[in-house]
Specification:
mainly alpha; 9 helices
């Protein structure tokens, strides 16, 4: 299975991708007219990386996700230690492009996603946004728009990892170049740059 790039990244010309990013993040950054989701990346960045917090549940609201009450109770109280242990097992944030082994069924990220999706009311989209909040460089956002643009209805993480690592990390490096070209904060990961380009392109195509 392969990862399909957004059309804006299928050529070497960065102009379209930059225009999509500028529309989302504003010019200047977080300027008038930016998308609500632009605030997700830098909301309370001092939040504990090894534990889900109330700030995480607030941050995903910028991405049009409302964590259900079942998730609030599970993540902040009833099962907080269980999820903290899973985050510890996954380890600190790092670039998905640096993962040099396939993400097979034993990978801790899968177990963390599975446990999140077992919480009543938490689907794949909500789980992905919570995971991207805790590990923005490692775990990508997924929703139906991203699915349709990138052809990731069945699998996303492993095809994306392979795409990012191809040609000596060419895609990963390009995404960081796009971020830097717009002088966006370093908290905005390569994965998030890709997500925004794909999502904005998909919305423009009425997906």
């Amino acid at each position: 299975m392969t990862f399909r790039l957004p059309e804006a990244l299928q050529t070497s010309d960065d102009a379209t991708a930059i225009a999509l990013l500028r529309r989302y993040y504003g010019a200047p950054y977080l300027g008038a007219g930016c998308a609500d989701g632009a605030h997700f990346d830098t909301w309370a960045t001092d939040s504990d990386p090894m534990r889900f917090t109330a700030d995480d549940l607030l941050a995903v609201k910028f991405l049009s996700v409302e964590a259900p009450k079942t998730a609030v109770r599970a993540l902040l109280r009833d099962r907080a230690d269980e999820f903290a242990a899973l985050l510890m097992e996954l380890g600190p944030d790092r670039d998905l492009a640096d993962e040099d082994k396939p993400l097979d069924n034993s990978w801790p990220g899968w177990r963390l996603e599975d446990k999140l999706r077992l919480i009543p009311g938490v689907g794949r989209t909500t789980a992905s946004k919570l995971l991207a909040r805790k590990r923005p460089r490692l775990l990508p956002i997924w929703d139906i728009v991203i699915r349709d643009v990138t052809d990731t209805s069945k699998d996303q993480w492993e095809p994306l990892r392979v795409a990012l690592r191809a040609d000596k990390l060419a895609l990963h490096r390009r995404l960081l170049h796009l971020r830097d070209a717009l002088q966006l904060p370093e908290e905005i990961s390569a994965l998030r740059i890709l997500d925004v380009i794909a999502w904005r392109e998909g919305k423009d195509r009425s997906l």
